[in-house]
TrEMBL record:
It holds the Pfam family DUF7707. It comes from the Eukaryota. Keywords: Signal. Residues 158-171 have a biased composition (Polar residues). Residues 143-157 have a biased composition (Low complexity). It comes from Gaeumannomyces tritici (strain R3-111a-1) (Wheat and barley take-all root rot fungus). Residues 36-136 form the DUF7707 domain. This is DUF7707 domain-containing protein. Residues 1-19 form the signal peptide. The lineage of its organism: Eukaryota, Fungi, Dikarya, Ascomycota, Pezizomycotina. The gene is 20351818. Residues 143-171 are annotated as: Disordered.
Length: 199
C-alpha cells in the first residue's frame, strides 16, 4: 500500500520536474541541424542570456544609450533586442549573442552525432559553423564591428566573461517561477509520501 502510494506520488511529480523541451527561437538563418536545447544546462543558458543582453546593450550604444527592449529568458531562450531608434541589430553576426550561442551548440551537437563520419562532420562545418557569428561588438559603435574568430575553446571563456552593466538591473522572474514550480512539485511528492506513510 505504502509502496503503491509512493510510486503514484513520484510518477505524478516526475513530469513536472523533468526537463521540458526548449523550442529553438526564431533565428535569422536556417539551421540544417536542429540542436536539442534541453541538453543545455540552465546555468549555461543563463550565461547565454547575459551575453545576449550585453551584446544588445553594446550594439545599441551603451553606455551612452540603452536599448528600449533587451529581453532574454534562459528558461525558454526567447529574446528581443530593439535600439532606441527602433531598429534591431543583426545579432547573428556577433559573438556572445544568443543566435551565435545556439548556432555553436548546433555545431557541437552535429559533430557529436557524426562521430566517425568525416563527410558528415565536414557538412557540420560548412552548413552550420559557417553561419555562427564571428564579429566582436564594439561599444557605442551603433553596430559596427571588428572581425574576430571565436573558437570552441575561447567560447567557454567568453560565456563566463560577459557581464551586464552594473547600473542595469535585469531581474529574471521567469527563472524564479521555474525554480519555484520545481520546488513545489518536489514538496507535493514529499507530502504524498509522508501522507501515505502515515496510513
Amino acid at each position: 500500500m505504502v509502496r503503491a502510494a509512493l510510486v503514484m506520488a513520484l510518477s505524478a511529480a516526475a513530469p513536472l520536474a523533468a526537463a521540458q523541451a526548449i523550442q529553438i527561437p526564431p533565428l535569422p538563418f536556417n539551421l540544417t541541424f536542429k540542436p536539442d536545447l534541453s541538453k543545455v544546462s540552465s546555468d549555461r543558458r543563463s550565461d547565454w542570456c547575459n551575453g545576449e543582453r550585453a551584446v544588445c546593450d553594446t550594439l545599441c550604444g551603451a553606455p551612452n544609450t540603452y536599448p528600449t527592449k533587451n529581453d532574454c529568458d534562459p528558461g525558454n531562450l526567447q529574446f528581443a533586442c530593439t535600439c532606441q531608434n527602433g531598429t534591431a541589430p543583426g545579432l547573428q553576426y556577433y559573438q556572445n549573442s544568443l543566435p551565435t550561442f545556439i548556432c555553436e551548440e548546433a555545431f557541437e551537437q552535429c559533430i557529436a552525432a557524426s562521430v566517425g563520419d568525416s563527410t558528415a562532420q565536414g557538412k557540420c562545418n560548412t552548413d552550420i559553423r559557417s553561419l555562427c557569428g564571428k564579429q566582436a561588438a564594439k561599444a557605442g559603435s551603433g553596430g559596427a564591428a571588428t572581425s574576430s574568430l571565436a573558437t570552441p575553446a575561447s567560447r567557454a571563456t567568453q560565456t563566463g566573461s560577459t557581464t551586464t552593466p552594473a547600473n542595469t538591473a535585469r531581474p529574471n522572474s521567469a527563472a524564479a517561477v521555474g525554480q519555484l514550480s520545481t520546488f513545489a512539485s518536489v514538496a507535493v511528492a514529499a507530502a504524498a509520501l509522508v501522507g501515505a506513510y502515515a496510513l
